[in-house]
Design a protein that fits this description.
0% strand, globular, disordered N terminus, mainly alpha, 331 residues
């Protein structure tokens, strides 16, 4: 009897099919999508955590930038001569609490501004918008401008509170606020809602430039370190090195804008709710250069770097670690 062969028959024994291997998960640095409110919260927490440690340097930076305002070099008394000396002067005169002046307003500013900024930037990363040429730079700038505008009232109050000091070491205009809430109320009663956003024309360029430099260099440096495979994919050292590179870039590009922003926020206003010293960003820039020289735009650069470098390292590192943990948990 001939042997029947089931060729191309549905009843013929089917060869076993090996299971299709799934692609391994992407690298740790690949953009991942998180729930937007969660991303906002992680960005806010990261920068608030860094702010607690760097706020004394922010106080010193503000005082150095206001010292000798619109006066030629050598024509005014210098209370502050450097970072360490300024920290000692503030601590010995105003006490330890003086080194944390404006901390509540600073935390409010960091939470609002960086929550919006980092959350928005993460969204553009997850959407693939940063993959285009110059995408990281544009997204970082847009995220910074949005965050700076929303958080401007908090930065206004923070600057005015940190400028306040006893008469012996006071620099710049003294607003004599009693606290954060009284500062908001007094500004609102004197200048209205628009008064809370006075100086925003200096804050938006400041954070736009700083954010573009920070986020673009951090993202690029992190990709470069990851591709070099110096550390394991989930190592904190990758984010640490990227944040250190980013801190240098931010300090160089941001200091002149930081000086102008501090001056605009701290200046007194007249009965028409206009600044007594500067009409706006360009007017402030021209007056500083005319009276204090180009070096006036780099006043306080050392504390800017001493503050921004660790702040950038801490905030970017904490943010990156929190996001990686959240991504691993949610995905």
């Amino acid at each position: 009897m001939p042997v029947m062969r089931f060729i191309n028959s549905p009843f013929a024994p089917q060869p076993s099919i090996a299971p299709v291997a799934r692609a391994p998960p992407g690298p740790a640095h690949a953009p991942g999508a998180l729930w937007l409110p969660l991303d906002f919260t992680l960005g806010a927490l990261a920068c608030c955590g860094a702010c607690v440690f760097t706020n004394p340097l922010e106080v010193v930076k503000t005082r150095l930038q206001l010292q000798g305002e619109l006066r030629a070099r050598g024509s005014y008394q210098r209370h502050y001569r450097g970072v360490l000396q300024a920290l000692w002067v503030v601590g010995s005169t105003d006490g330890v609490r003086g080194l944390q002046k404006g901390l509540t307003a600073a935390l409010l500013y960091q939470g609002l501004m960086n929550g919006v900024r980092l959350g928005f930037y993460s969204y553009t990363q997850a959407s693939g918008l940063t993959d285009a040429p110059g995408g990281s730079l544009i997204a970082g700038a847009a995220a910074g401008a949005l965050g700076a505008f929303i958080a401007s009232p908090a930065y206004l109050v923070k600057t005015q509170l940190q400028a306040q000091a006893v008469a012996a070491i006071a620099v710049g205009h003294q607003h004599n606020h009693q606290g954060v809430s009284s500062a908001f109320l007094s500004i609102y009663r004197r200048e209205g809602v628009t008064g809370l956003w006075r100086g925003v024309n200096g804050a938006v360029p400041r954070v736009t430039v700083g954010s573009a430099a920070q986020l673009a260099t951090f993202s690029s440096a992190k990709d470069w370190v990851t591709r070099a495979q110096w550390f394991s994919p989930h190592s904190c050292l990758t984010a640490l090195i990227a944040a250190m590179i980013s801190g240098v870039a931010v300090t160089i590009t941001m200091t002149p804008f930081d000086v102008i922003s501090t001056r605009l926020y701290n200046q007194p206003v007249d009965e028409f709710k206009r600044g007594r010293l500067y009409r706006g960003f360009v007017d402030c820039l021209m007056k500083v250069c005319a009276t204090e020289g180009i070096v006036g735009l780099y006043k306080g650069m050392t504390p800017v770097f001493v503050r921004l470098a660790p702040h950038t390292v801490l905030s970017m590192l904490i943010w990156d670690v929190l996001r990686q943990r959240a991504l691993l948990y949610t995905h």
